[in-house]
Amino acid sequence: MGKGGMSHGNVGEGKDGEEENMAAWLLGVNNLKILPFKLPTLGPHDARIRMKAVGICGSDVHYLKEMKLADFVVTEPMVIGHECAGVVEEVGSEVKHLAPGDRVAIEPGISCWRCALCKEGRYNLCPEMKFFATPPVHGSLANQIVHPADLCFKLPDNVSLEEGAMCEPLSVGVHACRRANVGPETNVLVMGAGPIGLVTMLSARAFGSPRVVIVDVDDHRLSVAKELGADETIKVSTNINDVSAEVEQIKKAMGAGIDITFDCAGFTKTMSTALGATLSGGKVCLVGLGHTEMTVPLAPAAVREVDVVGVFRYKNTWPLCIEFLRSGKIDVKPLITHRFGFSQKEVEEAFETSARGGNAIKVMFNL
User: Rounded distance, CA 238 to CA 174, Å?
Assistant: First the structure.
């Protein structure tokens, strides 16, 4: 897990006299078991972290239900989880900025730092990225992990460990807003009020957007979005034939031109709506990846010079996320709707709760 540990060869027993490290292993479809997990050796630039808060992401649920996500296939047992924060237990000999007892939020992706993309600063696109709970790399739903210390970020006293774990989904919204250049003069539309849609909405507001409208098919999620500060919420259908009418409804609700649209669902209908609603010269930022392939009205958007911007994970976002949380510009606490401990029964219940959806937004483990 830590340091990009691969799936094979990492189920192990603790040494005599030492606490046995346990983790939630994905063994098959709908099959999660808490089993021993042998930690890798602590390197000079690493930190050993005791996990305290781990959130469940939609990708975790997808792996549990399908054993695959896009081109990533789980072919052998894998530790799940990647949204995490914890307390430093031990640091390597060359680590100067952390000490045992420090509370840290953890960035889960380890890039190679050697390829052209890494050297350009776009390390999120590194082809050799080792990312928690993306096969064959282990995740972080465990008692302890070992991870590069430079990817562990100290939390201020007024930011909780749960909030620290929320830096991972929040980073997606922050990176999307950077990619789209959100600012005080950009009105924002968000398609989808799930966890990523909500953190994108919060990020857009923190970046200064004066007006944010969010749409979804679910009344409860829209009510949460309204409570979190959306200027307007609009319930839409799943019927592709409703796009034209809904575009007009959205434009009316915004009351001004829509400069940037974030599609946080990534379906044919949401992308078609985004392209139609965004003003000429604006941007559509594709954040969600619901459909791998879509049939959308691209030519009409192209002749209006609507730019389509891709988003993949994030880069250099943790310091800004932590500052947004410290300053109160963003409050992610209302997104955490369910909490579970780290027992076999609770792990199963937590994933069932997340998979059901309903009123669950973010399900969090407290270890």
Answer: 28
Q: How far is CA 267 from CA 168, 191, 238, 295, 353, in A?
A: 23, 10, 10, 9, 24
Please tell me the distance from the alpha carbon of residue 298 to that of residue 346, in angstroms, as a whole number.
Answer: 46
**pLDDT for 143-165, tens place per residue?**
999 999 999 999 999 999 999 99
Q: Is 99 helix (H, G, I), strand (E, B) or coil?
A: coil
Q: What is the DSSP letter of 40?
A: P
What Å distances lie between residue 125 and 113, 130, 149, 265, 304, CA to CA? Answer: 11, 11, 21, 21, 29
Question: Which tens digits make up the pLDDT trace of 99-124?
Answer: 999 999 999 999 999 999 999 999 99
Residue 285's nearest CA partner among 268, 263, 266 is 263
DSSP H stretches of helix in the chain: 58-66, 116-119, 161-165, 167-180, 195-206, 219-227, 243-254, 268-277, 298-303, 318-327, 344-356
The CATH number corresponding to 22-154+332-366 among 3.40.630.10, 3.50.50.60, 3.90.180.10, 3.90.1150.180 equals 3.90.180.10
Q: How far is CA 152 from the centre of its chain?
A: 16
Q: Which residue has the tokens 């005791």?
A: 50
Q: What is the spatial distance between Cα 359 and Cα 283, in angstroms, rounded to a whole number?
A: 31
Nearest to residue 314, comparing CAs of 125, 38, 104? 125
Cis before 36? omega within 30 = no
